[in-house]
């Protein structure tokens, strides 16, 4: 049980964490800060936070649990702004989709206080950004990846594990590097491809007409293209090398498929498609518990 | 009201059409044929068809409405097999995702009987192929594209419009060429990309581990990669030129995105992502009626 949650970045992720903690009875009050005052105000109006703070530092003041939930490129500046009030007993976490860059920023800024920081990435979200889409159940039944450092305090790591477990998450631990390699493959590249594909369709001469004909396959394939552009700008830049490596693998397979199409090799094409189809049909999303 | 529906290809699409027609009270009995006798048998066992025919020709015998619902490359051979029993009063339709190739096949085979054929493409489906996934509501609330020819009989065209409308579809008419250009963009290319992407992730050294970490974004982005490989083999080959042209557009945008990533141009990246994000957020799937 915590006394006060300080949320820095009152958007979909931070707002949902605040709602979930309240719903689980794990926190008495929530103080929130967002770069845009209107967002903080909206979060308060919606009951996502109890008190609007005028700075990140003020959101940390008096909090025994702090969540960083702004775009990842703002991590270093935010940590600098709050480090003076970070107590050794505070549990400090983030929810960033990249981990190596966040950990590097924490190393540079936190010094002796590095132990309180437990880097976290909950595998949850939706295409509708913003605190108005926050919901208490966003994390329920999802995986959360913690990427603790050698310096991470064992007590804080246990606290972090307990909090996410209490929200209905399955907690996994990985190194920041392994995390970033894996999520370049299963999350960052598909976002890049979805953004690229939607733009390519929409920005052609008949694009507007074509879009009126698109069906459920298109709807699901492009859902993530509606994701928050500032969040994804930061993720794609922070994990650029891994994303590029995954893009290269993707392009190689696309080249191969187009080669067999060009040569009208129906059998080879079917074999390649069947491999993907059977693999995807067998795949199941990792979940914390049956729903 | 029809006396007998002959379904050639008792899979997801043909089976769902049979169920929908029965549920709407538009047909007295359904005779079905599939290339694989076990599929026909299963369709009968599931109550999707009333009678299993031993050939395509026998499925047409006595039918006043006939639906071709096998992979598109089989159209010409199927039409050759059934043309002797095609009566001028029969409504003959297909459900293929490509239209120029199907129309060409019909022109070559049907001769004077071409007028009975109304090429149709219902914008519906799901990733689970097979008659066991057929459902009476698959077409409800969806668009269906008819691509009539100058030779198409006006009575048959009206009948086709009435049937799909009765199933809850919005009926649109286009030329086969415009249809294929549009669906290369909004359907065929995303399927190709989803197949390529899933294979690229799965077939790398850590692919199996990565897949256990994938979340809801991955799930939706790759749903269509589980589609039927024989159906998509035929579609991609039949509409190869248009799909390649769309792939080129997609690759150009992907190249651009990667260039701005490589040059760490955060502002340009955000602008490109925002354009896609806002466009996708505003897009709504065309539906026949609010649901």
UniProtKB/TrEMBL annotation, chains A, B:
It holds the Pfam family PDH_N. Keywords: Oxidoreductase. It comes from Roseateles aquae. It comes from the Bacteria. Residues 3-291 form the Prephenate/arogenate dehydrogenase domain. This is Prephenate dehydrogenase/arogenate dehydrogenase family protein.
């Amino acid at each position: 049980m915590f006394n006060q949650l300080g949320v820095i970045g009152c958007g979909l992720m931070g707002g949902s964490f605040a709602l979930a903690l309240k719903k689980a009875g794990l926190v008495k009050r929530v103080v929130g800060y967002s770069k845009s005052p209107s967002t903080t105000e909206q979060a308060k109006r919606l009951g996502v936070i109890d008190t609007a703070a005028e700075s990140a530092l003020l959101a940390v003041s008096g909090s025994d649990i702090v969540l960083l939930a702004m775009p990842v490129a703002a991590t270093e500046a935010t940590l600098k702004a709050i480090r003076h009030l970070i107590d050794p007993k505070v549990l400090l976490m983030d929810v960033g989709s990249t981990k190596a860059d966040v950990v590097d920023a924490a190393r540079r800024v936190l010094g002796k206080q590095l132990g309180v920081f437990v880097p976290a990435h909950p595998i949850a979200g939706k295409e509708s950004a913003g605190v108005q889409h926050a919901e208490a159940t966003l994390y329920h039944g999802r995986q959360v990846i913690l990427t603790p450092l050698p310096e991470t305090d064992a007590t804080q790591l246990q606290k972090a594990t307990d909090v996410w477990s209490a929200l209905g998450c399955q907690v996994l631990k990985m190194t920041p590097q392994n995390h970033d390699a894996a999520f370049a493959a299963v999350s960052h590249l598909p976002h890049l491809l979805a953004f690229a594909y939607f733009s390519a369709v929409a920005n052609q001469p008949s694009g507007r007409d074509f879009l009126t004909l698109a069906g459920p396959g298109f709807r699901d394939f492009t859902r993530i293209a509606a994701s928050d552009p500032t969040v994804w700008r930061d993720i794609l830049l922070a994990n650029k090398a891994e994303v590029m490596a995954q893009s290269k693998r993707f392009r190689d397979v696309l080249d191969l498929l187009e080669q067999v199409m060009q040569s009208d090799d129906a059998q080879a094409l079917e074999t390649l498609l069947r491999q993907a189809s059977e693999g995807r049909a067998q795949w199941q999303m990792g979940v914390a518990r049956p729903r």
